[in-house]
Amino acid sequence: xxxxxxxxxxxxxxxxxxxxxxxxxxxxxxxxxxxxxxxxxxxxxxxxxxxxxxxxxxxxxxxxxxxxxxxxxxxxxxxxxxxxxxxxxxxxxxxxxxxxxxxxxxxxxxxxxxxxxxxxxxxxxxxxxxxxxxxxxxxxxxxxxxxxxxxxxxxxxxxxxxxxxxxxxxxxxxxxxxxxxxxxxxxxxxxxxxxxxxxxxxxxxxxxxxxxxxxxxxxxxx
Length: 222
Fold this sequence. Notes:
222 residues, alpha+beta, Heat Shock Protein 90, two-stranded antiparallel sheet, 6 helices, globular
């Protein structure tokens, strides 16, 4: 067995263990008898465990992509319903951090994409947003210039200028300062590029001050 296969197996095992930790923490969070000090500590552990779990999912997915063990399963998706699911999956985390999570999407909007892959990207973006926002997060989707565009925005300090001026996000020399991990950006770019329609190919984009005053990460799907 190759080293990378062993590593992938270990990542899968670690992900399962972390999922158990997250499930246990979720149960403790619901215990109303927990005092406020311990509740804050539990919330911190909960957020970091979810963040690490998302990173492991990204690593495992990238491994499968590189070894051609995964390809996008493109299906028609009710986009508004899909975003509602993302909101529900992250509700406990944003509420525990006193963050207002809102969405904006035409209820009749439909798109064609791999639901599981895009779900992983958006959940990771929301997880990062929780760390960097002041108190607001916005998830939106719209049809624009022939693409389905998902955006996750916050009202935090925004992306640093070196990241905005270098949109070649897969370049190893990109300055990914301020904790915005290279892995997350590389993962999102890879997932976007796996979505094709004729000569069109998906891509990602960073900007500041789109609708909220902080960073805005968008993923464009043809």
